[in-house]
């Protein structure tokens, strides 16, 4: 059953959907304000949350991330899909079930599907992109890692890995393991990575609230010859410092 919510602050259509497969993920769908005009040209963004939002009600999947960012005025011209994980590692197959359901039920640009996630969602992002590189135009994994052993398929798509050096919740070694394996196997031509010096586990969440993140994602398409990575878009410390400028302290729950 679809439940529609009218969010005047977002000027977008937000709906929840129950699991489409036994033991699958329930998920949120947010359509951009101009969806009726853009439809098959609209990008699709899949957001995977971290372990702190597992369990409970589906509303937990909205506490941070792209949908939450639009609530505070950030313009993201894409369909945003936010699955809710009740617990355990993200399943690439269950995420793909949602993507395939979206293809059957919504018009969007299938060459411009993007995935990004933080912490447990960072693991889920790399696992999903590694299993389905032919479906992902670009991916961004924040303070995560991967449960897989073979990372070579990640070399087929533009990928940005970000991790704080002072992260005590998920060691930066988890991201470094992926990067070093890709470098060792010479599949890193489409990889960029940033180690945020002195930053903790919560800092990368700020990337969800800045325009450069989505500009970078949307600069890639499956139709790009050789699928080159965009290395021109940069994020500065100042950009991250002002990421929450439209939020109050009590609004954000990591």
Question: Helix and strand string, N-terminal first?
Answer: EEEHEHEHEHEEHEHH
Largest sheet: 9 strands, mixed
Helical stretch count? 7
Give the strand line-up of the largest sheet: 1-2-3-5-4-6-7-8-9
Helix content: 10-25%
Distance between the termini: 29 Å
Shape estimate: globular
Q: What is the rounded Rg?
A: 17 Å
Unreliable stretches covering 5 or more consecutive residues: 1-10
Mean pLDDT: 93
Structural class: alpha/beta
Oligomeric nature of the chains: single chain
| Count of distinct strands | 9
Instruction: Indicate the proportion of strand residues.
Output: 15-25%
Question: Nutshell version of this structure?
Answer:
It is built from seven helices and nine strands, in the order E-E-E-H-E-H-E-H-E-H-E-E-H-E-H-H. The protein is α/β, with parallel strands linked by helices. A nine-stranded mixed β-sheet has the order 1-2-3-5-4-6-7-8-9.
What does the model show?
The chain has 254 residues and is of the alpha/beta class. Helices cover 24% and strands 20% of the residues. The chain has seven helices and nine strands. Strands 1-2-3-5-4-6-7-8-9 form a nine-stranded mixed β-sheet. The longest helix has 14 residues, at 92-105. The protein starts with a strand and ends in a 13-residue tail after the last helix.
């Amino acid at each position: 059953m679809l439940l529609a919510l009218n969010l005047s602050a977002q000027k977008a259509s937000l709906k929840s959907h129950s699991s489409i497969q036994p033991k699958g993920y329930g998920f949120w769908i947010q359509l951009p304000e101009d969806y009726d005009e853009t439809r098959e040209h609209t990008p699709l963004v899949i957001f995977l949350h971290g372990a702190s939002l597992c369990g409970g009600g589906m509303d937990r999947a909205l506490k941070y991330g792209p949908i939450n960012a639009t609530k505070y005025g950030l313009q993201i011209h894409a369909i945003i899909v936010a699955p809710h994980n009740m617990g355990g590692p993200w399943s690439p197959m269950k995420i793909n079930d949602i993507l395939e359901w979206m293809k059957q039920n919504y018009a969007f640009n299938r060459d411009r599907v993007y995935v990004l996630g933080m912490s447990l969602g960072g693991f889920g992002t790399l696992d999903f992109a590694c299993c389905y590189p032919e479906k992902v135009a670009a991916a961004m994994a924040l303070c995560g890692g991967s449960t897989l052993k073979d990372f070579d398929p990640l070399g087929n798509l533009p990928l940005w890995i970000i991790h704080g050096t002072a992260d005590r919740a998920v060691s930066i070694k988890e991201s470094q393991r992926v990067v070093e394996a890709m470098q060792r196997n010479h599949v890193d031509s489409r990889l960029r990575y940033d180690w945020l010096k002195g930053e903790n586990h919560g800092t990368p969440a700020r990337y969800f609230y800045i325009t450069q993140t989505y500009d970078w994602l949307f600069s890639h398409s499956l139709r790009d010859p050789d699928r080159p990575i965009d290395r021109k878009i940069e994020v500065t410390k100042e950009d991250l410092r002002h990421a929450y400028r439209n939020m109050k302290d009590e609004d954000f729950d990591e």
